Structure formats: structure tokens, C-alpha cells
Amino acid sequence: MEGGGKVCKRCKTTFDPALNTSASCRFHSAMYYELGPDDPPYDAKFYDCCGAEDPQAPGCKTLPHISYDDKDH
């Protein structure tokens, strides 16, 4: 995708604007949360939006890609 590709602000992948659909971008709408060393001693790692525990879990939301060039986002 030379010249026409843009980088998505949400998922950080390069996309072709001509092929951008309402479900092109898959992302998590909240941060991945990990307890710190001073937090309780149980293991709590998860995405705050959907509860997925795997940091590599596919996103739980889909929307069109949005580039850094797009306005109002």
C-alpha cells in the first residue's frame, strides 16, 4: 500500500481509506490494567472495557479506522 496508506490512531495499523468500513478497526476502548507491587497479592490483569485477561486479546469494539490526518477526532 504505497502512498495511499494511513495509520489508524486507535489500532496503529496502516489502512487504505478506500477500503475503510464500519468494522475495519478492532480495538479496546479502555486501558489494560495490571496491579502494581503495592496492590493486593492476587493476580488482576484485564481490559477495563470488556474484562479480557489476555493483553493480546482481539479488540472488543469495531469502528472505521481513523487516521491522524482526520479532523475532529
UniProtKB/TrEMBL annotation:
What's the protein called, per UniProt? CHORD domain-containing protein
Q: Which organism is it from?
A: Selaginella moellendorffii
